[in-house]
Specification:
Strand content: 35-45%
Shape: rod-shaped
Helix content: 10-25%
Distance between the termini: 142 Å
Radius of gyration: 53 Å
């Protein structure tokens, strides 16, 4: 019991010391925590951009009022160092009571800024409503008391209203004092004054002119007609915030491209960071997405010229030009739709009409052919063994002892004289009848009138062996020593190999049978000439060439060119072709004929141009009647070769 008593005594003796020590420990802990928090805050602030704010009060800082007089706020605004208005963030404490005399403070706070306006109310406290016949003046402003404008933006007065002491409208008696110069940045004060006898009423409006005007530039990429236009939009000025495009999409970039595909007025709206709104409009009238319309009429005249008459229209940008095509090849680009072409066109004629926006109309031409010459029929005593007659092709095969004369009338020989190449040239060759059957299947010539024959010799068994055939076929556009054109494309052309037959034959776009003479030899000079010769053939527009040829008739007379193909004296199987006029041809197929025989036969037929074709063991003549699917062999079947020639109805 005594020990407890002693312990209590000790505690009682040091009680004050324990309390003091405890308080000191708590103070130390609190200081450490506060220091840590402050240190972290200061450390974080070093990484943040410091933005300052300016707080401005308009009017007097001290305002004197009589008891019962209304307090009119003169205005205020705040703006940060980035030029962005912060007025809406101001916190205002206002306890002004104008019914009681006294001194009142209105406190304006934003961020770390504070401004104070003092309002002193003098007079006796109003305890009961004062009745008087005389009414107080009233003057109120329409709109805001503080108006923000961008530099250069015109100031438009929002208006005001006033009544006099009799309660009547006195708006017209109000005087507005002050000026606003929006060409200069600053704060401008407008004072509105109403006087009625000894009574006077004033109200103030403040205009803040800021350097935040935005300028919008709209530039179309072209002022010419086009199917679409790219509009370049560029905004310049301070405090740009966003841009509203014509489709109402909102973007944050001050530079944009906007695609326009139809005519109309397009408006762009830019906003600055202070809420300022700026608009710019542009009217587009040069969009044209509609192609022209039209028709094309072509007449092939009997003098072998062609007349074009195109009727075309475009309701928007208008017709710009016409591009004329014959068999896929452009021959004229002009601004006129009427034209006389100084040659006979093919039956594949069309035109492309372009408007000023480059919209295109593809028009096939309706053709009236007045150029076809009459059919030259066989004589009454001629032995016609096969006959085929269609609207576009007429064939009469006449037996003449050991040979055949085939009279041919073709409405469009440029397209109707064709050939078919072996698809495995250099590897496997075919008999002409086999190739003709392959062509018939590929080009859907079943039930068509067909006259087939062997016209060319290429591989020449015994002259070039199979190895050489394969060797020279590897060249792009290469044959054994001559030019080969099939369906308008050059497929073989060996300049560096001499071949003893130096002639090719073909029908040009004017339906003329032509014979082209190659240069002989392998020297550099001769190779240059061979290239020029080949290019002249290509430029003439020949669709198909046939070789192993030599001239027999030129300009209606015997050719003075002599070669051993065919021999002037040796009688063998021969195949030759001649042209009487643009539409009438003759084919000679058979044996026991020499060069002179062929020439005499052609002259007797009144041929203007005639050429030898492949002969000897390669002669072949085939016939398929229209409505039939059977090819009949008239004479020979030829050796294995690379291509077969044929006339067919269109």
């Amino acid at each position: 019991m005594k020990k407890k008593s002693n312990l209590k005594g000790i505690i009682s003796e040091y009680k004050d010391i324990v309390i003091v020590v405890g308080i000191l420990v708590i103070i130390v802990l609190v200081c450490a925590i506060v220091f840590n928090i402050v240190s972290k805050k200061e450390e974080g602030n070093t990484e943040e951009e410091i933005v300052t704010t300016t707080l401005t009060l308009f009017g007097n800082r001290t305002i004197n009022l009589e008891v019962g007089e209304d307090f009119e706020e003169p205005g205020y605004y705040a703006i940060d160092s980035n030029g962005v208005l912060q007025t809406s963030n101001i916190i205002i404490t206002n306890n002004v009571d104008t019914t009681k005399p006294g001194t009142y403070e209105i406190i304006y706070r934003i961020a770390d800024k504070e401004e104070i306006r003092t309002v002193i109310v003098e007079g006796e406290e109003i305890k009961e409503p004062v009745t008087s016949e005389k009414k107080p003046l009233t003057l109120t402003l329409t709109g805001e008391k503080v108006i923000n404008l961008s530099l250069g933006e015109a100031y438009k007065e929002p208006g005001y209203k006033a009544t006099d002491s009799n309660g009547l409208d006195a708006t017209e008696k109000v005087l507005v004092l002050g000026e606003v110069d929006t060409s200069k940045v600053g704060n401008y004060t407008l004072t509105y004054v109403l006087e009625d006898g000894e009574d006077k009423k004033e109200v103030i409006r403040t205009i803040v002119v800021l350097d935040d005007k935005l300028t919008i530039t709209l530039t179309p990429n072209t002022t010419n007609y086009a199917s679409s236009i790219t509009l370049n939009i560029k905004v310049t000025g301070n405090n740009f915030a966003s841009l509203t495009l014509p489709n109402q999409n909102i973007v944050k970039s001050a530079s944009n491209n906007y695609n326009i595909t139809s005519n109309g007025t397009y408006t762009v709206t830019a906003y600055n960071k202070n809420g300022g709104k700026f608009e710019k409009s542009i009217t587009i009238t040069n969009i044209d997405k509609t192609a022209p319309t039209g028709t094309c009429q072509v007449t092939i005249n009997n003098n072998n010229t062609t007349t074009f008459n195109i009727i075309a229209a475009d309701s928007e940008s208008g017709i710009n030009n016409y591009v004329y095509y014959d068999d896929g090849k452009q021959f004229l680009n002009t601004t006129t739709g009427s034209y006389v072409y100084q040659q006979k066109t093919t039956k594949n004629v069309y035109v492309k009409v372009y408007d000023k926006a480059k919209n295109e109309k593809f028009i096939y031409c309706d053709i009236t052919d007045n150029s076809a010459l009459p059919v030259i029929l066989p004589g009454k005593k001629d032995n016609v063994v096969k006959k085929g007659e269609t609207e576009t092709l007429k064939v009469y095969i006449i037996k003449k002892g050991s040979y055949y004369i085939t009279r041919i009338w073709a409405q469009d020989p440029y397209h109707q004289l064709n050939k078919f190449d072996s698809p495995e040239y250099g590897k496997k060759l075919y008999r002409p009848k086999t190739l003709l059957n392959k062509a018939k299947t590929k080009y859907n010539l079943q039930n068509k009138l067909i006259l087939g024959f062997n016209a060319s010799a290429f591989y020449l068994r015994g002259v070039y062996d199979a190895y050489e055939v394969s060797k020279y076929s590897k060249y792009d556009k290469t044959s054994v020593g001559t030019l080969v054109i099939t369906d308008g494309k050059v497929i073989r052309n060996a300049y560096n190999k001499a071949y003893k037959t130096r002639y090719i034959v073909g029908v040009d776009p004017n339906n003329k049978l032509r014979i082209f003479t190659d240069a002989k030899g392998t020297s550099s000079a001769q190779i240059k000439k061979k290239k020029e010769w080949a290019q002249s053939v290509i430029d003439s527009g020949i669709r198909n060439t046939f070789t192993h040829a030599s001239p027999l008739i030129q300009n209606g007379k015997k050719s003075n060119i002599t070669t051993n193909m065919p021999s002037p004296s040796t009688r063998k199987n021969r195949q030759a072709i001649c042209q009487i006029d643009d539409n009438n041809f003759a084919l000679i197929t058979g044996g026991n004929l020499n060069r002179s025989d062929l020439q005499n036969i052609m002259l007797n037929l009144k041929c203007q141009t005639g050429s030898n074709l492949d002969g000897g063991g390669s002669i072949a003549l085939f016939f398929q009647a229209n409505g039939s699917n059977t090819i009949s062999t008239i004479k020979g079947n030829g050796r294995d070769l690379t291509e077969v020639a044929y006339f067919t109805e269109k």
